[in-house]
Amino acid sequence: MNSSVLDNGNHSNPQIHDMSSNMIKADCVVIGDSFRGFPTEYFCTSPRYDECLDYVLIPNGMIKDRLEKMSMDIVDYYEACNATSITLMCVLKGGFKFLADLVDGLERTVRARGIVLPMSVEFVRVKSYVNDVSVHEPILTGLGDPSEYKDKNVLVVEDIIDTGKTITKLISHLDSLSTKSVKVASLLVKRTSTRDKYRPDFVGFEVPNRFVVGYALDYNDNFRDLHHICVINEVGQKKFSVPCTSKPV
């Protein structure tokens, strides 16, 4: 699959560079480290977040278009596997908007192809961050009866892969429940020096190591209502910070 890279520092002339001619391969849209996004004044954002955002990293329209293609890729995979159903497991809270739009895309693809691929939805909640720091090992809550996952094709729907600790813990737990398969669709993968080598099966965007908010991604439960994925600045971090009582991990 060819990669597309967003990588420029000029707000007045943002460009998308197709790197396929350089034989660079990727499984998603790669946003380069030098890409400085789009000025927030060009987009609709809540007055509550005035002066709190550095820039818009991924506009909502780009998210929706990317999810349309991800939906096709996911259906392609399960069709090839002759899957009879999919259980989508949404990682809360940050994954709920991604889940809603992904399910819409999957349903459109299934209807357009005239195939039968029933989908059910489950939810699991994970907490590991206070402010912008991972303060403890991921805590998983909300998983139902373990027998419900036996012989099921589970697709974990995650908002962002950062250190990789959360998703590897969840996959390990699901594998112990005798699932038929466990795959992961992540809207974002962050490039960090601390991230595990784990790579999701389906990825929307690979982003620089910056703290992103919006489209249900939060900073202490704020910014989930932003339509776009944005980079929070120091003003926003100070305004919405909370006391941290745990040691970083």
Can you walk me through this structure?
Its cofactor is Mg(2+). Pathway: Purine metabolism; IMP biosynthesis via salvage pathway; IMP from hypoxanthine: step 1/1. It is an enzyme of class 2 (transferase). It comes from Schistosoma rodhaini. The protein is α/β, with parallel strands linked by helices. It has helices at residues 60-80, 96-113, 165-175, 234-239, and strands spanning 4-6, 16-18, 29-31, 53-58, 86-92, 119-130, 133-141, 153-161, 181-190, 202-207, 212-213, 229-232. Strands 2-1-3-10-9-8-5-6-7 form a nine-stranded mixed beta sheet, sandwiched between helices. Strands 4-12-11 form a three-stranded antiparallel beta sheet. Helix 3 (165-175) links the parallel strand 8 (153-161) and strand 9. The longest helix has 21 residues, at 60-80. The chain is globular, with a radius of gyration of 18 Å. The two termini are 35 Å apart. Mean pLDDT is 85; it is low at 9-25.
Please outline what is shown here.
GO terms for molecular function: hypoxanthine phosphoribosyltransferase activity; magnesium ion binding; nucleotide binding. The chain has four helices and twelve strands.
